[in-house]
């Protein structure tokens, strides 16, 4: 599905003076798209003469081929074994900015455990994952890497639990009906499961992997080479949206001054109810766009050890920080978040 989100004031073009550039952006539906939504509503992309066309995909992995082929110019999703396999096959994409990470104030990705298991004393520590049926999103994603670190913290490996793959929206019902014992889930699913009474938020992934780079902004290399001016303008608008989002974060939640306005925007586009957005643990996103390359390398090494990556990828070479760095020169450095 493609939605025109910024009205073009004239004919789309190559991004020269006065011309509007159409930029196709692919992403799964996610709260972490907040900077796009904010930039649209507050005119930041319009200010930069960008006509943003947001295309919704079922998963981040589905955006990689069209991004590399130039059918998309930008994508937002998760670093994954699939992304690195594509880069190893010479698919032309670059990681250009942070789009979500496990914040110091708490991660929006967390280990959920059925309430009855916690209340009964059956589950007291990560070591109690042994033998449990645990849902995640499948091999090769950041949730799998985080789950492996929860297991490691309990002296276990992934092989010590019974893993099952479920789509995120199915985590809550599976916890409710007892078909799974635990899950590694992301917001707003985490909050919905807790509010239903089915599960306890036992720990955020920040407990075992602080700063994990969970989401990234990607540019297609064709976009970079053909229209670097538009790529730079897009980044400025994106970071303005990021900074507006960060400005209303307080102790990891959307509760700071000005939060209702941001919540209304994100709810409008994400369809997540405003009352839920007001209670979730938010994703972190760096106001300068800085990517945690150490985290990218650690997850790459984990997936490589699991046999999920074929070929080699130079992580620093897969990251192009130049657009974010240039945007920061134009905008000034971001203020620290609370």
Structural summary, described in words:
With 338 residues, the chain is of the alpha/beta class. The protein folds into two domains: 2-101 and 212-331, 3-Layer(aba) Sandwich (D-Maltodextrin-Binding Protein, domain 2); 109-207, D-Maltodextrin-Binding Protein, domain 2 (3-Layer(aba) Sandwich), CATH 3.40.190.10. Helix content is 38%, strand content 20%. The protein is built from 15 helices and 13 strands. The chain has helices spanning 34-41, 44-47, 64-68, 81-88, 115-119, 142-153, 170-177, 189-196, 221-226, 228-247, 259-270, 274-277, 293-305, 315-318, 322-331; strands spanning 2-4, 21-28, 50-57, 74-77, 93-101, 109-114, 133-136, 162-165, 182-186, 199-204, 213-220, 249-250, 253-254. Strands 1-3-2-4-11-5 form a six-stranded mixed sheet. A five-stranded mixed sheet has the order 8-7-9-6-10, with helices on both faces. A hairpin with a 2-residue loop joins β12 and β13 (253-254). The longest helix is centred in the C-terminal third of the chain and has 20 residues, at 228-247. It is globular, with a radius of gyration of 20 Å. The two termini are 36 Å apart. Mean pLDDT is 93; it is low at 1-16.
What is the fold's blueprint, element by element?
Elements: E1 2-4, E2 21-28, H1 34-41, H2 44-47, E3 50-57, H3 64-68, E4 74-77, H4 81-88, E5 93-101, E6 109-114, H5 115-119, E7 133-136, H6 142-153, E8 162-165, H7 170-177, E9 182-186, H8 189-196, E10 199-204, E11 213-220, H9 221-226, H10 228-247, E12 249-250, E13 253-254, H11 259-270, H12 274-277, H13 293-305, H14 315-318, H15 322-331
Parallel strand pairs: 2-3, 2-4, 7-8, 7-9
Antiparallel strand pairs: 1-3, 4-11, 5-11, 6-9, 6-10, 12-13
């Amino acid at each position: 599905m493609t939605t025109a989100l910024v009205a073009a004031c004239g004919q789309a073009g190559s991004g020269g003076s006065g011309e509007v550039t159409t930029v196709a952006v692919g992403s799964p539906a996610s709260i972490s798209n907040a900077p796009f939504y904010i930039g649209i509503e507050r005119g930041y992309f319009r200010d930069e003469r960008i006509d943003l066309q947001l295309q919704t995909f079922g998963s981040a992995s589905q955006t990689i081929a069209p991004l590399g082929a130039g059918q998309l110019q930008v994508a937002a999703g998760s670093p994954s074994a699939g992304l690195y396999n594509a880069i190893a096959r010479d698919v032309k994409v670059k990681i250009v900015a942070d789009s979500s990470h496990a914040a110091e104030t708490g991660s929006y990705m967390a280990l959920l455990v059925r309430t009855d298991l916690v209340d009964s004393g059956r589950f007291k520590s990560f070591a109690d994952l042994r033998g449990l049926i645990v849902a995640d999103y499948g091999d090769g994603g950041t949730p799998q890497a985080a789950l492996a670190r929860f297991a490691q913290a309990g002296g276990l490996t992934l092989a010590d639990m019974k893993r099952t793959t479920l789509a995120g929206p199915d985590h809550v019902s599976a916890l409710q009906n007892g078909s799974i014992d635990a899950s590694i889930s992301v917001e707003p699913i985490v909050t919905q499961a807790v509010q239903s009474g089915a599960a306890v938020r036992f720990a955020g992934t920040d407990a075992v992997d602080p700063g994990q780079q969970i989401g990234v902004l990607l540019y297609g290399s064709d976009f970079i080479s053909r229209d670097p001016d538009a790529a730079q303008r897009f980044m400025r608008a994106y970071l303005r949206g990021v900074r507006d989002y960060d400005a209303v974060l307080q102790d990891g939640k959307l509760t700071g001054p000005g939060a209702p306005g941001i919540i209304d925007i994100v709810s409008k586009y994400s369809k997540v109810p405003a009352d839920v957005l007001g209670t979730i643990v938010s994703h972190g996103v760096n106001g300068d766009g800085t990517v945690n390359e150490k985290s990218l390398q650690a997850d790459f090494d984990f997936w490589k050890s699991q046999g999920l990556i074929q070929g080699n990828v130079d992580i620093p070479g897969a990251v192009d920080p130049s657009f974010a760095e240039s945007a920061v020169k134009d905008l000034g450095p971001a203020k620290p978040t609370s």
